[in-house]
C-alpha cells in the first residue's frame, strides 16, 4: 500500500534531471566531507610542535590514518549497498511496507556491525599499522588519532545506513542536510579540541579525530529521529527493528559481495600504502595530500554513483530495465564530465593546492614530490568515473559478485606488481633473485594506480553494457 508520506512518482521525468536531482545533493554532501578532511590536513600542518622538524611525521601519521579511516567507508558497504538496492526495488514496486521493514533491518545490521568493528579496531590497530610499515612516533600518533573514531564507529555506520535507505527512496536531500550539518559541526569541534577555547587547553592532534567522531554521533541521532517521524515514505518503527532473518538475508545477499569487493580493495589499498610508506615520510606526506585533492574527482563519481544505484534499482523494481540501463549511462556521462573537469584543475593548480598545506619552505620537498603525481591522475579521471559509477549501478541491480573479480585483477595483477617495479631501484623476487626496478618513487606508484584504474574502468563499462545485471534477483 502506498504510504501517505511517499514522494511523488518521478520515474517518468527526463533521466538527466533525475540523475542531477539525486546526484547534486549527494555531491554537495561529499564535498562537505572533503572540506572536513582538508580542514584536518590543514590543522595537522599548523598546530604548534616542540620540534618543527617533526611536522612530516604528523602528516605521515595523518595520511595512514586517512587510509584506515577510508577503510570504514568500505566496511559500511556491509549495510549501505543492500539497503539502497533493496529499498529502491521496493520503492520502484510501490511496496512501502517492505521498504520500511528493510530500513529497520538496515539499522539493526548497522549497530551490530558497528560494535563488531569497534572491538576489532581496538584490538588490532597497533598490529595493522605496524604491518603498513609505519614506525616510531608516526605509528604511535596514528593509533592515538584513530582510537576515538573506533570507539564511536557504530554511530557512523548507523548514520550511513539511514542515509543509504533514504537514497534508495530517492531522497538524497535529507542526507545532505544532516551530513552537511555534521561537516559544519566537525570543523569548529576539531579546531576547538585541537587548539582549545579560551582558558580551556586543546588536546592537540587527537582532538582533530575526536571532533570528527562527535559530529557523526550527532548526525546519527538526527537521522534516526527523522526516520522515526517518517520521511520520504520511510518510517522507522520498533516492530521493524525486530530481526527478520529472511529480510536480513536479502540485504546481505547484495551487501556481502559488495563488501568483499570494497574491503578487499581496501586491503589492497593498504598494501599499496605500505609501498608508499616505505619510500619515507616525505613521499608518504605528499601521497596523502595528493589523495585529499584527488578526492575532488573521486567524490564526484561517488555522488553520481549514488544516483545510478538508486535509479537502476527503482527502474528494475518498476520493471523498466531499458530505462534502468539508460539511467546508468546518463549518470556516467554527467559524472565523467564533472570528473574530467576536476582533472583539468589538477593539471593547472596542483602546485597551489600543495602549497596550501605546505606553506613552510622546509616542506618544499613534499611539494616537489607530490605535484607531478597529482597532475598525472588527471589522465585517469574518465576511467575512475567508469569504475565508480558502473560499480554503483551494478550494485543497485544486485549484481555485486562478478565485479569482485575485476577489483582483484586490477589490484593484484596490475597496481601492486607495477608499483613494486616502478617505485624501487630493484625488485626482490625471492628464490628467483632480483630484477632492476625503475626507481621512480611516488610518481611510479601513481603510474601504477592510473594503469589499474584504466583496466578496471574498462571491465566495469563492458559488464554494464552486457546487460546481464537486468536479470539479477534481490
Automatic annotation (TrEMBL):
GO biological process: monoatomic ion transport
Listed Pfam families: MatE
Its membrane topology: Multi-pass membrane protein
Parts of the chain that traverse the membrane: 67-87, 107-125, 145-166, 178-198, 204-230, 251-275, 295-317, 329-350, 370-390, 402-423, 443-462
GO molecular function: antiporter activity; xenobiotic transmembrane transporter activity
Keywords annotated in UniProt: Antiport, Cell membrane, Ion transport, Membrane, Transmembrane, Transmembrane helix, Transport
Domain of life: Bacteria
Subcellular location, record wording: Cell membrane
Family annotation (CDD domains): MATE_NorM_like
InterPro entries to which the protein is assigned, alphabetical: MATE_fam, MATE_MdtK, MdtK-like
A single Gene Ontology CC term: plasma membrane
Annotated protein name in UniProt: Multidrug-efflux transporter
Organism the protein comes from: Gemmata massiliana
Amino acid at each position: 500500500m502506498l504510504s501517505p508520506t511517499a514522494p511523488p512518482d518521478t520515474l517518468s521525468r527526463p533521466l538527466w534531471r533525475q540523475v542531477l536531482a539525486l546526484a547534486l545533493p549527494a555531491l554537495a554532501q561529499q564535498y562537505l566531507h572533503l572540506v572536513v578532511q582538508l580542514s584536518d590536513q590543514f590543522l595537522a600542518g599548523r598546530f604548534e610542535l616542540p620540534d618543527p622538524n617533526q611536522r612530516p611525521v604528523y602528516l605521515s601519521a595523518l595520511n595512514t590514518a586517512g587510509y584506515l579511516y577510508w577503510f570504514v567507508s568500505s566496511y559500511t558497504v556491509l549495510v549501505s549497498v543492500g539497503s539502497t538496492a533493496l529499498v529502491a526495488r521496493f520503492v520502484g514496486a510501490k511496496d512501502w511496507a517492505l521498504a520500511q521493514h528493510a530500513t529497520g533491518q538496515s539499522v539493526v545490521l548497522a549497530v551490530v556491525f558497528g560494535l563488531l568493528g569497534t572491538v576489532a579496531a581496538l584490538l588490532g590497530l597497533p598490529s595493522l599499522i605496524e604491518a603498513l610499515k609505519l614506525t616510531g612516533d608516526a605509528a604511535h600518533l596514528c593509533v592515538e588519532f584513530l582510537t576515538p573514531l573506533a570507539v564511536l564507529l557504530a554511530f557512523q555506520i548507523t548514520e550511513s545506513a539511514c542515509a543509504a535507505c533514504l537514497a534508495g527512496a530517492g531522497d538524497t536531500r535529507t542526507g545532505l542536510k544532516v551530513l552537511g550539518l555534521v561537516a559544519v559541526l566537525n570543523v569548529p569541534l576539531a579546531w576547538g579540541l585541537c587548539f582549545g577555547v579560551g582558558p580551556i587547553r586543546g588536546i592537540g592532534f587527537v582532538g582533530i579525530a575526536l571532533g570528527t567522531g562527535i559530529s557523526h554521533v550527532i548526525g546519527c541521532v538526527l537521522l534516526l529521529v527523522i526516520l522515526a517521524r517518517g520521511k520520504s515514505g520511510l518510517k522507522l518503527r520498533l516492530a521493524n527493528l525486530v530481526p527478520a532473518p529472511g529480510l536480513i538475508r536479502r540485504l546481505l545477499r547484495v551487501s556481502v559481495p559488495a563488501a568483499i569487493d570494497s574491503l578487499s580493495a581496501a586491503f589492497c589499498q593498504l598494501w599499496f600504502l605500505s609501498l608508499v610508506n616505505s619510500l619515507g615520510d616525505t613521499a608518504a606526506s605528499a601521497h596523502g595530500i595528493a589523495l585529499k585533492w584527488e578526492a575532488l574527482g573521486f567524490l564526484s563519481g561517488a555522488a553520481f554513483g549514488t544516483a545510478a544505484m538508486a535509479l537502476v534499482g527503482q527502474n528494475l523494481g518498476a520493471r523498466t530495465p531499458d530505462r534502468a540501463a539508460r539511467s546508468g549511462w546518463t549518470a556516467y556521462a554527467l559524472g565523467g564530465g564533472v570528473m574530467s573537469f576536476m582533472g583539468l584543475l589538477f593539471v593547472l593548480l596542483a602546485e597551489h593546492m600543495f602549497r596550501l598545506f605546505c606553506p613552510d619552505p622546509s616542506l618544499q620537498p613534499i611539494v616537489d614530490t607530490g605535484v607531478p603525481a597529482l597532475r598525472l591522475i588527471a589522465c585517469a579521471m574518465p576511467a575512475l568515473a567508469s569504475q565508480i559509477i558502473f560499480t554503483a549501478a551494478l550494485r543497485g541491480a544486485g549484481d555485486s559478485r562478478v565485479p569482485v573479480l575485476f577489483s582483484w585483477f586490477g589490484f593484484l595483477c596490475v597496481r601492486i606488481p607495477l608499483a613494486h617495479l616502478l617505485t624501487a631501484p630493484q625488485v626482490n623476487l625471492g628464490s628467483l633473485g632480483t630484477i632492476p626496478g625503475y626507481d621512480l618513487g611516488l610518481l611510479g606508484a601513481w603510474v601504477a594506480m592510473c594503469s589499474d584504474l584504466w583496466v578496471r574502468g574498462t571491465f566495469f563499462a563492458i559488464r554494464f553494457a552486457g546487460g546481464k545485471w537486468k536479470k539479477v534477483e534481490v
